[in-house]
Amino acid sequence: MGRIREQLDHEADGYGIEVVDVRIRRADLPEQNSQAVYQRMQTERQREAAEFRAQGGQKAQEIRSKADREATVIIAEANSTAEQTRGVGDAERNRLFAEAYGKDADFFAFYRSMSAYENGLRSSDTRFLLRPDSDFFRYFGNPAGKSGAETKSAAENKSAAENKSAAETPAKP
User: Fold this and answer.
1) Could you tell me which residue, 27 or 168, shows the higher pLDDT?
2) Which tens digits make up the pLDDT trace of 10-51?
3) At the N or C end, where does the chain have fewer CB atoms within 10 A?
4) Is the pTM of this model over 0.85?
5) From CA 70, how far away is CA 80, in angstroms rounded?
6) Do the Cβ atoms of 100 and 111 come closer than 8 Å?
7) Is 32 exposed, middle or buried (0-12, 13-18, 19+ CB in 10 A)?
């Protein structure tokens, strides 16, 4: 800048002008240089944007994989707890069934038949080809679940037992 000021001062001296200071307000580059500068600036910004996107994508993938891993662990723990609870419930159900069977075998047989009816006749398209006097339908004809021959035999046994008991009991004076 100093050389430009001195050169201008020397040339303007002939007109009686003294040049004290020279400053550049604007420098226009040739159009192709301007385009190259703008292109470099744009390329640099695009590179920075791509780098930020890549970093964001990496963080997003890390977060997703961590969430997937945690979800898998939670589901596995929930399934484990469910299976344990189901096992405890099944054990309790089996214990109650065994206890019920020990107390009243007829009730247990009735309950099992009711469960079989429920499971066997659940679907609307279930078809059975069974005889009406089959064992599957024994509670339909007789609430005690016994066939006519069994009922008659049980009544005869009960009557015989009562007669025997009456015969063995001494008469009261």
Assistant:
1) 27
2) 888 888 888 888 888 887 778 888 888 899 999 999 999 999
3) C
4) no
5) 15
6) yes
7) exposed
| Six-digit token string for 48 | 């920075």
More confident residue, 77 or 114: 77
Can you count the helices (H) and strands (E) in the chain?
5, 0
* Distance of alpha carbon 109 from alpha carbon 131, whole angstroms: 20
Length of the chain: 173
Q: What is the CA radius of gyration of the chain?
A: 52
Residue 80, amino acid: S
**Identity of residue 47:** R
Rounded Cα gap, residues 106 and 150, in angstroms: 13
